[in-house]
Structure formats: C-alpha cells, structure tokens
Specification:
Length: 453
C-alpha cells in the first residue's frame, strides 16, 4: 500500500469544498489521486463556515417566530434558550457531515492522508509524517483563515468566527467588528439568541458590494431590533477589567462587553506551504495567482477556492475544483461564469442577490430601469411586525434583459437561487411579466412589477 502511494497523478492539498470536489471528479476519470487534510474533512464550509452558521441562524429565528405566534392564536408560554444544547447538537451534525465527506473520498478511490502536506518541489509533496509523494499535478486548495486586522492593544482578547462556534456559553453581551456578511450574520445570530449585540464597522454602511438600498434597510431593521450599530468607528484597544471587556473606539466612545468578535476579513492560507520551492507566485495578499484555468506560475501546480481569493464562496470553490478536474483529467474544459453568482446574507431579515447592484448596473447600462417594491408580508402585517420586504429588479432598457435581482426579507435566499436560473438563461423583463404569479406569496411581486422608477 505504502509503495502504491509513492506516485500519484494528482495530489490535492486541503479537503475543503474545492479540494474534495476536484479529487473525487479526477478519481472518477480514472486518475490516481491522493488528498491531505490537516484538520477536518469538508473544510471551512462544513466545519466552521456555511453549515454551522446556518444552523445557528435557524436557532436565532425562533425568537421572532415565538413573538409572532400569539397573533396566530398560539400561546407559547415561557421560552428558554440553551446554548450548550445547540452547540452539542451542531457538533454532532458536523461530525456526521465530516464523516460523509471522508467516506465519499474513500468510495471514489482517493487515498486519504489525515495530516498536513507541504510542497517540496513542483512535483513532490511532503507529509507531516515525513513521507514524500511524487505527483504529476498538485492542486492547492488550502482555503483561507480569519484575518484579525491591523494590530491594536488587547487584540488577543478577541475571538474570530472560528472560535464563535465553540464558545462555552452564550455571551450576555457581544461586540462584533466588521461590516461584511460574516459580521452581519453573526450580529443577527447573537441578537436573536438573546445577547446584547453591538456591531462596530469602520465604514459608514454595511455590506459593501451589495445593493446599498437593501443594505440600508437591513441596517434600519437591525437598529429596530435592538442591535447597536456603531458605523464609522474602529477598535483602538481592548482591556479586561471589572466590566468584562472594555473596548475603546476611534470615535472616542467606550463599550463594555463580554466577547469581542473580529470579522475583519479572511486571508488566503498559504504560509509555510513551500510555495517558494516550487516557484509558485503569490499576490501581496498571500493569494496564489492563477489564470482563468486555475493554473499557477508553475505548470504542474494548480490552485482553486479561497486560496486564490477570487470569489470566496463554497459553490465557486466547488465549481473551480470540478472544472479543474474536467479539464486536466477528463478532457472536457468548462468555462466558469463569475458574473452571475447568486448569493445571500443570512441575516434576519435575509438578503439575497444575483447580478449587479444598482450603482454598478447604472455604470454598465446607461438605460437602466429600476423596478422596486417595498411592503409588509402577509404574515408580518398580520402579526403587526415592522420589517418590510424590499425587492428590486434591474433591467437593461436597451435589451430588456434583467441584470440584477435583489431581495430583502423572508426566504430571500431561496428566491434568489431560482432568479439565478432566469438570469443565467438571459431572461428579459417581458419574460418575467409573462410568468404566471404564484399567489399568495411574496415572490409573486417579482413577476408583477409594472412601474420603473
Ligand atoms: C463563518 C463563515 C461563513 C460562511 N458562509 C458561507 C455561506 O453561507 N455560503 C458560502 O458559499 N460560503 C460561505 N463561507 C465561505 C466558504 O466557507 C468558503 O468559500 C469555502 O469553504 C472555500 O472552500 P476551499 O475549498 O477554498 O477552502 P476550505 O473549505 O477552507 O478548505 C481548505 C482545507 O484545507 C486544509 N488545509 C489547509 N492547509 C493544509 C495543508 N498544508 N495540508 C493539509 N490540509 C490543509 C484546511 O484544514 C481546510 O480543511 C463562509 C465562511 C465562513 C468563515
């Protein structure tokens, strides 16, 4: 067995979203494949990203459901939340998924090395146990790591998303730093679960890169729901004292909290990987530079997923890994379209988006038409809730093509996945209008928008 492993067609470093997909597809084409994973199979998404986060989001939404229930005739009685139960159940589910990932690799005939691997030269990988393996091709799929931002006093007292999933108790107070989707999602999670939540962001607006109208409406909703927003401020210092943690902000204010969570971005995980020895070129951010075919500067070395810092999402890493295997081992090159990537922010209310936000669409399409609607859903109006659903359809007036769909409100992510199909197929506004509405639903508004603003 050991001898058989000494030479492979493909060695994949990192068994996350991109690496696992590439390994399984390449093995399916008959390639001899090995993979190394230094932590948990399934990578960030399964172990400390999308999946556990969504479970926490589900947990956090029961509060709103309980609140609304009375209007529908339910008497819920006293409710109590137990963080330890949620985390234990989450860990059990993640362990199950991790074993599924491992088993699927095994079933595909991929040789598994549950240890760290580094590159020794353009065709050699060295494992932590000292074993060396020759590989026709090497795929780097090592993902990213939380970036704690520029250093400040007391930074070591803060946690990142990696640790948030393993807190021993629900913090009574939490201060989250950042304005990207991870910060916004965790603010919603902790507030929903009952923590007194503050969100500190250096920008004046949350969710850069998303449609500003929806981002602003979400910020208003967070404010209404008791999340303290401190925009235009950064953390200068954290001190542990009698108040718990005292956080000094750049605007001169001070906040007392129990946990500070830094969601200040992620960086490609390339340190100590031996990339120099193989001549693999890096960008200043540490990202591996690749071309549209995921080729690095070294012909036998490829890279996919977050380590290349293109679009850091699971489906993108999977698509890149799959396309790499198709091209290099199946002879069926598949181009990847990065323009239309449906994506969601699992805040409460939820935000879903595909295509360009309005500001960018206006630049690209001078004849842009914007169709928008804002309303309270049937459910929310009935329960006298305040949150509004917001929907925008952006249409290129020159061609009638829909170039962006943005939704804020219940089930936005589910709607946007399907809107993504329509946009990928090149749907026009006329075709949206031709589509029969599904009543009563919120999504029907997307096919009944008449008046451009
Ligand atoms: C809190 C959070 C929430 C997220 N939510 C979403 C979401 O809702 N939707 C979405 O699409 N994306 C989400 N993401 C992003 C998503 O998790 C990543 O884009 C995706 O996991 C990237 O896949 P990857 O294969 O590039 O890397 P990863 O999944 O990070 O996998 C890399 C793997 O390589 C291993 N590794 C690294 N170096 C070595 C080495 N030298 N030897 C052996 N093994 C090594 C690591 O242990 C890791 O398991 C989220 C991320 C975070 C942090």
């Amino acid at each position: 067995m050991v001898e058989a492993m000494d030479e492979v067609d493909l060695f994949v470093i990192g068994a996350g979203s991109g690496g696992v997909r590439a390994a399984r597809i390449a093995a399916g084409y008959g390639a001899k494949v090995a993979i190394a994973e230094e932590a948990n199979f399934g990578g960030t998404c399964v172990n400390r990203g999308c999946v556990p986060k969504k479970l926490l989001v589900y947990a956090s939404r029961y509060r709103g459901d309980f609140d609304e229930a009375a209007a529908f005739g339910w008497r819920v009685g006293e409710t109590a939340f137990d963080w330890a139960t949620l985390i234990a159940n989450k860990d059990r589910e993640i362990a199950r998924l991790e074993s599924v990932y491992r088993r699927n690799l095994d079933k595909a005939g991929v040789a598994i090395h549950a240890q760290r691997a580094v590159i020794e030269d353009a065709n050699t990988v060295r494992l932590a146990d000292g074993k060396r393996i020759r590989a026709g091709k090497i795929l780097i799929a090592t993902g990213g790591r939380p970036y704690r931002g520029p250093a400040f006093e007391g930074q070591e007292l803060a946690i990142t998303s990696d640790e948030a999933f393993h807190l021993t108790e629900l913090p009574r107070r939490i201060l989250i730093v950042g304005g990207g989707y991870i910060a916004v999602e965790f603010a919603g999670i902790f507030a929903g679960l009952g923590s007194e939540t503050t969100l500190v962001h250096r920008g004046e607006r949350l969710l850069r890169g998303f449609d500003t109208e929806l981002a602003d409406e979400l910020a208003s909703s967070y404010g209404r729901n008791g999340i303290g927003l401190r925009l235009g401020a950064t953390v200068k210092r954290i001190v542990r004292d009698a108040y718990g943690l005292t956080v000094s902000l750049s605007d001169g204010s001070v906040a007392h909290t129990d946990v500070v969570m830094l969601c200040t971005g992620r960086r490609p995980y390339t340190g100590g990987l031996g990339l120099d020895s193989a001549g693999v070129a890096l960008a200043p951010s540490g990202a591996i530079i690749v071309d549209s075919q995921s080729r690095t500067s070294t012909p036998s070395v490829f890279a996919v997923g977050d380590v290349t810092d293109r679009v850091n999402l699971t489906p993108v890493a999977i698509r890149e890994g799959h396309a790499f295997a198709d091209r290099e081992f199946g002879g069926t090159p598949q181009p990847i379209d990065y323009d239309l990537i449906p994506t969601a922010v699992f805040s409460t209310p939820e935000l879903g988006t595909v295509g360009l936000p309005e500001a960018a669409a206006r630049e690209r399409y001078p004849q842009l038409k914007v169709f928008r609607t804002g309303f309270r859903t049937m459910r929310s109006a009935f329960a006298e809730g305040e949150d509004r659903m917001l929907m925008k359809l952006l249409v290129d007036g020159a061609t009638d093509r829909v170039v962006g769909v943005h939704v804020l409100g219940d089930a936005a992510a589910e709607m946007i996945q399907l809107a993504g199909v329509a946009l990928t197929a090149g749907a026009t506004k006329a075709q949206f209008d031709m589509t029969m509405a599904l009543h009563p639903s919120a999504a029907e508004e997307l096919v009944t928008l008449r008046q451009a603003s």
